[in-house]
Amino acid sequence: MDTEEMQRQVQALTDRAEITDLLNRYLRSLDYGVFDEEWARAFHTEDVTAEMPIGTVHGRDALLARVRQGMALFDRTVHLGTNAIIEIDGTRATAHGAQLSTHVLADGSDGVFISAGHTDTELVRTADGWRISASTLRVVWTQGSPPRLPDEFAPAPSAVPSSS
Predict the structure, then answer these.
(1) Could you tell me the CA-to-CA distances from 116 to 26, 124, 125, 145 in Å, in that order?
(2) What is the C-alpha separation between 152 and 82, in angstroms, rounded?
(3) CA 40 to chain centre
(4) How far apart (Å, rounded) are the C-alpha atoms in residues 163 and 72?
(5) Whether 140 contacts 118, CB under 8 Å
(6) If phi over 0 gives left and psi between -120 and 50 gives alpha, with beta otherwise, what is residue 160?
(7) 149 phi and psi, to 5 degrees?
(8) Which of 66, 137, 158, 160 is least surrounded, with the fewest CB atoms within 10 Å of its CB?
(9) In this predicted model, what pLDDT tens digit does every residue of 8-57 receive, in sequence order?
């Protein structure tokens, strides 16, 4: 193996590790409840698009506002991501995985709502490292009673399947 090929392989492994770390840190950050501009810049590009069960948003500021509103519906959460298939093409990458999210409702009921789904994430390499430029979470099953969503969160009828 020549030096150029070795450097290419090291870069590919480094990129994969950095993307995996970013995705893991993002999911863990959802459980800590600190959603400020620093949080948003650490994970997302300025022009990010995010499709979530609580609606689709465009732009980092809109995403930050929606995540703050959405996460305020829960007292405690645990978000797990797994099975990420990462494909890298220069300064762009995609990651396809699975997500399991457990939420304790903040409505005083101590009710638990669990959702599981598939994630599709687009990433770009920036001067500050890899960042999420687009993401989609498609919920495929739920258990328990979901929180009562404010009217502005009303998802499309097919966005959240009925409980199983």
Answers:
(1) 17, 26, 28, 14
(2) 30
(3) 12
(4) 22
(5) yes
(6) beta
(7) -85, 140
(8) 158
(9) 999 999 999 999 999 999 999 999 989 999 999 999 999 999 999 989 99
